Amino acid sequence: MAKFTFLRPVLWTENLEETIGFYTQCLGFTLLGANTDWQWASLKKDDVQIMLSRPNSHEKFNGIGFTGSFYFNVDHVDELWEELKTKAKICYEIETFDWEMREFAIYDNNGYILQFGQHIDEISKEE
């Protein structure tokens, strides 16, 4: 059976440059490569990689169509909250949940929900 080695989601966007700007300027991703003819880009931050793409003509695209969210496990979640709470539209504010995760969520410029969380045991180790 094949071994899965990595997942790199492709987020569809109608405005590639604006989306590159959101991820690089707001979230601190690095642009690895882009091709305006293909309307495609690849970005990376630490161990996370994503690709951005304008849908091809054979793909139906009526705006955001993803029916979930992207959950990022991070360290220093409170610091990240302080950094992002005035830079992005908030989905929900930072909170510690019963499942022992401290997390918050924002919307990117396309309306995708980006959640950021840290297990509370890891927070106590940082202090």
Q: What this model shows, in words?
A:
By secondary structure, the protein is α/β, with parallel strands linked by helices. It has two domains: 7-55, 2,3-Dihydroxybiphenyl 1,2-Dioxygenase, domain 1, CATH 3.10.180; 69-127, 2,3-Dihydroxybiphenyl 1,2-Dioxygenase, domain 1 (Roll), CATH 3.10.180. Helix content is 20%, strand content 38%. It is built from three helices and eight strands, in the order E-H-E-E-E-E-H-E-E-E-H. The chain has a four-stranded mixed beta sheet with strand order 1-4-3-2, covered by helices on one side. A hairpin with a 4-residue loop joins strand 6 and strand 7 (101-107). It is globular, with a radius of gyration of 16 Å.
The CATH C-level class name of the largest domain: Alpha Beta
The structure class reads alpha/beta
Q: How many angstroms separate the termini?
A: 43 Å
CATH topology of the largest domain: 2,3-Dihydroxybiphenyl 1,2-Dioxygenase, domain 1
Order of helices and strands: EHEEEEHEEEH
Q: Helices and strands in order, then pairings?
A:
Layout: E1 10-12, H1 16-26, E2 30-35, E3 40-45, E4 48-53, E5 69-73, H2 77-84, E6 89-96, E7 101-107, E8 113-119, H3 120-126
Parallel strand pairs: 1-4, 5-8
Antiparallel strand pairs: 2-3, 3-4, 6-7, 7-8
In short, what is this structure?
With 127 residues, this protein is of the alpha/beta class.
Features:
single chain, 127 residues, alpha/beta, 2,3-Dihydroxybiphenyl 1,2-Dioxygenase, domain 1, 2 domains, four-stranded mixed beta sheet, 20% helix, 38% strand, globular
